[in-house]
Specification:
The chain contains 20 helices and 3 strands. The chain is an all-alpha fold. It folds into 2 domains: 145 residues, no CATH class; 333 residues, Orthogonal Bundle (Neurolysin, domain 3), CATH 1.10.1370.30. Strands 1-3-2 form a 3-stranded mixed β-sheet. Strand 2 and strand 3 form a beta hairpin. The structure holds zinc ion (ZN).
C-alpha cells in the first residue's frame, strides 16, 4: 500500500463520521422533536470531536508528509496530487483549531439554532442575542487560531471560498452594486405594471408538493439516490453520492416559492449526485466552494426555471393542476409574475435583481461584526437601517428582519458572499455552455434538460472538489469571477419584462 492509499483509507473514515453527523443534523431540521435538542447537541459535538481527532494527530501528519513525496511534481490535473492537496488543506485548517473549540462550537451552534427558531417564531431578537454573542466570540477565537493578515473575516471566508479574501469580495460587490442600482431604479421609475394576484391565492399543499417532485424528476434529480422532505428553511445535504437529500417548504399562499425552491435545491443536489464515484468516499467528494455550489442551484432555479421557454413548456401542466387559481392566465403572464422586481424583506423570496443587494448588506454587517465595529445588540437597528437605505424596505419586525436567516445560528460566518458570487458564476458558466452546445435553447424550450445536465456533469460536477474554485472557474470560463456577464444578463432579461 502506498502512503497515499493509506491516507485515502484513513480519510474515508473521517468522511464517514462527518456524514453520520450530517444525518443527525438533517434529522434535527426535518423530523426531530424539540425535546431532542440538547442530547442532539451533545451527539453532534462528540462526532465533531471524533472526526477532529481522526484528522489531527501525529500519525496523520507523518502520513501527509510521506504522501507528499509520492505526488511531488504532479500538477492539479493529477487525481493523486489533488487528493493529497485536499487532505493537507483539511489538516492545516483543523490542526489550527483545538478539539476543545470544535466541541464548544458544535454545542453552541446546536443550542443557538434552537433559540433562533424560538426567537424567530416570537419575532424577538433578544431571545437569540446571547447565543449569537457567544457564537461570534467563538468565531473570533477560531479566526485567531486559523491566522490572518488583514482581517479576521478572511480565515472565516476561506472556509467556504478557498483562497478568497474580504477585499476581493468587496471589490466585486462594489462593481456589482454600482451596476444593480440603475437597473433597480429604471424598473421602479419606468417599468410597466405586472399582474401577480394569481401567485398569492391558495394552492393546495399536496398538489404543490406533487408538482415539485415532477420538476425535480424532469431536471434529472435521481430519486433512487435522494428524497425530498419538509423543513422550515430548505437545504440540501449529502450522505454519499448515492444519497443526496433535498428539502423544501410549502405555504398555501406562496406556491411558486416551493417550485423555485425545488429547482434551487435540485441544482445543488445534481452537483452532488454528479461527483465521480471514485471521489465519493473521501476528501474530493462534494462541491468545491459555496459559490460554485450556488452557481449550480441558480442555473436551474433562475437561468432555466425563471425563463420564458421554461414556463411556455411547463405552464399548461401547472394550469391543469391548479385550474381555479390560474384560470385565464397565460404562460407569459405567469413568467412575468415570477420575475417581478421590487423591494422585499426576505432574501430567499427576493427577485434576481435585488437578491444580491440582500447579500451585500449581510456581507457588510458580517465584516463589521467580525472586525468589531458593530455590537450584536445593535444588529436589529443596523439591519433595519440598511434595508431602508439599500432596498428601500421598511422592516416590520425582527422575524422578517435580522432573524430571517438560519446561517448565523449555525455558526456560518463568511458564508453569505457565496450566494452572490454564485449568481455571477451561474451566468459565466451558462454562457460557456451556450457556446459549446449550439442547440441548447431549443433543447431547454422542449423541456429536454439532459444536454445541459451532461455539460454541467462533464465540466463541473464530476470534478467534485478536485480543483480549487479558482482553478475550476479558470478551466471553464478562461477567467475569474466577473460581475459583467451577470449584469448584462439582467439588463437583457428585465428589459424584455419591464419594457425599459
Ligand atoms: Zn443554495
Amino acid at each position: 500500500m502506498t502512503k497515499l492509499e493509506e491516507l485515502k483509507a484513513k480519510s474515508a473514515e473521517i468522511v464517514d463520521v462527518q456524514r453520520a453527523a450530517a444525518v443527525l443534523s438533517w434529522d434535527q431540521h426535518a423530523f426531530m422533536p424539540v425535546g431532542g435538542a440538547s442530547a442532539r447537541a451533545e451527539q453532534l459535538a462528540t462526532l465533531g470531536k471524533i472526526s477532529h481527532q481522526l484528522l489531527v494527530n501525529s500519525e496523520m501528519e507523518k502520513l501527509l508528509a510521506a504522501a507528499k513525496l509520492e505526488v511531488e511534481g504532479m500538477g492539479p490535473d493529477s487525481d493523486d496530487f489533488a487528493y493529497w492537496r485536499a487532505a493537507q488543506r483539511n489538516y492545516d485548517r483543523f490542526a489550527k483549531i483545538p478539539a476543545d473549540l470544535v466541541a464548544r462550537l458544535s454545542k453552541a451552534t446546536s443550542l443557538a439554532n434552537e433559540k433562533w427558531v424560538d426567537a424567530r417564531s416570537k419575532s424577538d431578537f433578544a431571545i437569540f442575542q446571547p447565543n449569537l454573542e457567544e457564537l461570534l466570540g467563538l468565531q473570533l477565537e477560531m479566526a485567531k487560531d486559523l491566522g490572518y493578515q488583514d482581517s479576521p473575516y478572511d480565515p472565516l471566508l476561506d472556509l467556504y471560498e478557498p483562497d478568497m479574501k474580504a477585499h476581493q469580495v468587496r471589490a466585486i460587490f462594489t462593481e456589482l452594486k454600482a451596476g444593480l442600482v440603475p437597473i433597480v431604479a429604471a424598473i421602479a421609475n419606468g417599468g410597466r405594471q405586472i399582474q401577480k394576484g394569481f401567485l398569492m391565492t391558495e394552492y393546495e399543499l399536496a398538489d404543490q408538493e406533487a408538482f415539485t417532485l415532477e420538476l425535480l424528476k424532469a431536471i434529472g434529480y435521481d430519486f433512487r439516490r435522494g428524497r425530498q422532505d419538509k423543513v422550515p428553511h430548505p437545504f440540501t445535504t449529502t450522505f454519499s453520492s448515492g444519497d443526496v437529500r433535498v428539502t423544501n417548504r410549502f405555504m398555501l399562499n406562496r406556491a411558486a416559492s416551493s417550485f423555485f425552491g425545488a429547482l434551487h435545491e435540485g441544482g445543488h443536489a445534481l452537483y452532488e449526485q454528479g461527483v465521480r464515484a471514485d471521489f465519493d468516499h473521501g476528501f474530493l467528494g462534494g462541491g468545491t466552494s459555496t459559490a460554485v455550489h450556488e452557481s449550480q442551484s441558480r442555473t436551474w432555479e433562475n437561468i432555466v426555471g425563471r425563463s420564458l421557454p421554461f414556463w411556455t413548456h411547463w405552464f399548461p401542466a401547472l394550469q391543469k393542476r391548479f385550474e381555479n387559481q390560474l384560470r385565464g392566465v397565460t404562460a407569459e403572464e405567469y413568467w412575468k409574475a415570477v420575475n417581478i422586481v421590487g423591494p422585499s424583506a426576505i432574501r430567499v423570496e427576493a427577485d434576481e435583481v435585488t437578491y444580491n443587494l440582500h447579500i451585500i448588506l449581510r456581507f457588510e454587517i458580517e465584516v463589521d461584526l467580525v472586525e468589531g465595529r458593530l455590537a450584536v445588540k445593535d444588529l436589529p437597528q443596523v439591519w433595519n437601517a440598511k434595508m431602508k437605505e439599500s432596498l428601500g424596505y421598511e422592516v416590520k419586525d425582527d422575524a422578517e428582519g435580522v432573524l430571517q436567516d438560519v446561517h448565523w445560528s449555525m455558526g456560518y460566518f463568511g458564508y453569505f458572499p457565496g450566494y452572490a458570487l454564485g449568481n455571477l458564476l451561474s451566468v459565466q458558466f451558462y454562457q460557456r455552455a451556450q457556446a459549446d452546445i449550439p442547440n441548447l435553447s431549443e433543447q431547454l424550450a422542449d423541456g429536454h434538460y439532459q444536454v445541459l445536465l451532461a455539460w454541467l456533469r462533464s465540466n463541473i460536477h464530476q470534478h467534485g472538489s478536485k480543483y480549487t474554485p479558482t482553478e475550476l472557474v479558470q478551466r471553464v470560463t478562461g477567467g475569474e469571477i466577473d460581475p459583467k456577464p451577470f449584469l448584462a444578463y439582467l439588463k437583457e432579461k428585465y428589459g424584455q419584462i419591464y419594457g425599459i
